[in-house]
Amino acid sequence: MGIGASELTLAQLAAIGAYSNVIFFNDATDSDLLKTIVGSPRTILINLAQLLNIA
After folding, report:
1. How far apart are CA 6 and CA 30, in angstroms?
2. Number of structural domains found in the chain
């Protein structure tokens, strides 16, 4: 993204998600979520904990 995660607020993350069709989720192993969004080439998955470096 080009910005430090510490500079992003949750509101900004939500805005980014709404704007660029990015789905943020905590558990990358959530197969139900993966099944729901599979097949959408515009969808980018980002593990929120990994993004914020709190894993």
Report:
1. 26
2. 1
